[in-house]
Design goal:
Helix content is 22%, strand content 24%. β3 and β4 form a beta hairpin. The protein is globular, with a radius of gyration of 14 Å.
């Protein structure tokens, strides 16, 4: 159970993100901790970025979306600073993404190892389609 904290705001657009803080946020999860700073910055510039900010402007959450605006969108790099977790920030990021009018008609995708329960309230379900990678 969590208590939703409304003392933060969600902003969109790379121009509203703090690249330094996004790099720091992406050092937390195992799946991104070794990602190079240059790759993180490049990914920001080629994605729809969403950030969660405290009232004093500190960025404490991040998520990004990759899309062609015609058929699919892919949610990735959803992360909330450790000391701000369990306050509804991740949920607010996902709510903002899934309520985006440009994305609503598209097929949303994401990959998760163990966070299915987090994504299910936003309409995501396990799919038997197998994802393949070349790395």
């Amino acid at each position: 159970m969590y208590k939703e904290d409304t003392s933060f705001t969600i902003k969109t657009g790379v121009e509203n993100m703090s690249p330094k803080e996004v790099v720091n946020l992406l050092r937390q999860p195992v799946w991104a901790k070794d990602r190079k700073k240059e790759a993180i910055i490049k990914s920001l510039n080629h994605s729809i970025c969403y950030g969660a900010f405290t009232k004093n402007g500190q960025q404490v959450g991040f998520a990004r979306v990759i899309t062609d605006y015609a058929t699919h969108f892919y949610i990735c790099d959803v992360v909330v600073k450790k000391e701000f977790r369990n306050k509804g920030i991740g949920r607010q990021l996902l709510k903002t993404i899934t309520e985006n009018e440009d994305l609503k008609p598209l097929l949303g995708m994401l990959i998760t190892e163990n966070a299915e329960k987090f994504y299910e309230p936003f309409g995501f379900t396990k799919n038997p389609i197998c994802f393949m990678t070349n790395k």
